[in-house]
Design brief:
Layout (H helix, E strand, L loop, with lengths): L1 E3 L3 H10 L4 E2 L15 E8 L5 E4 L2 H10 L3 E10 L1 H17 L5 E3 L1
Parallel strand pairs: 1-6, 2-6
Antiparallel strand pairs: 3-4, 3-5
């Protein structure tokens, strides 16, 4: 599982309380506020697995909210450039299809 955050406080809390996470450093640039051309990256919490899921696709966000009650919608995690949003979707789809293991923290 990868976990992404813009919050230094959230990152530090995870590192202090969840030793199974490994800090990998900065993965890409995100914005704490919407900037010209950026799109929201939405975050969900899976209550069955304790992991997070991210998407930049509006239709996917709406489908998850409507059809997957074990995923709690946490809102916009932060904003990303549109290309980065689609890269995120591809990476997560690849991750799930390969059923990778291990837990990582990325800020």
């Amino acid at each position: 599982t990868h976990f992404f955050t813009q919050s230094t406080a959230e990152r530090d809390n995870i590192l202090e309380t969840l030793p199974q996470f490994s800090f990998e450093g900065e993965a890409y640039k995100g914005y704490t506020e919407q900037v010209d051309g950026s799109i929201p990256l939405y975050r969900f919490f899976n209550t069955q697995t304790g992991t997070h899921f991210y998407t930049a696709a509006e239709a996917e966000k709406d489908s998850i909210i409507e059809n997957l009650p074990t995923f709690n919608f946490e809102g916009t995690a932060y904003w990303v450039d549109p290309v980065m949003g689609w890269v995120m979707l591809i990476l997560f789809d690849l991750y799930w299809s390969l059923k990778s293991v291990g837990t990582r923290l990325i800020k």
